[in-house]
Amino acid sequence: MTTVAEDMAPLHHVDLLEEVVRALIGDDGNQESVEVIEKKSDPHTTIFVIRAAKSDRGKIIGRKGAAISHIRGLFDRIVAKENHRFYIEVEDDNNVNRRRSPRRDS
Fold this sequence. Notes:
- By secondary structure, the chain is α+β, with helices and mostly antiparallel strands.
- The chain has one domain (12-100): 2-Layer Sandwich (GMP Synthetase, Chain A, domain 3).
- The chain is built from four helices and four strands.
- It has helices at 4-7, 13-25, 57-61, 66-79; strands at residues 35-42, 45-51, 85-91, 96-100.
- It has a four-stranded mixed β-sheet.
């Protein structure tokens, strides 16, 4: 007999980030427009680009960048043991909001 935890497959980072962003947008937003693209710039660096409806980007970024900062902090904890550098960007019409993860490789 298996436990529930054993039956559940772990979410890939892209899928997890997508779910977090959709939850942040909520039911009143356009959750179907959320897309996360994963780009590998080298074996130890990954860039996640969040695409969403223009009306939902403010919810993703949050007041003074608080929401996206918390998302980046969450992913910092998730990848901490992987010795991996990552960026989470929010795509805009004109540019991309790019910040390095708070994790610094030693």
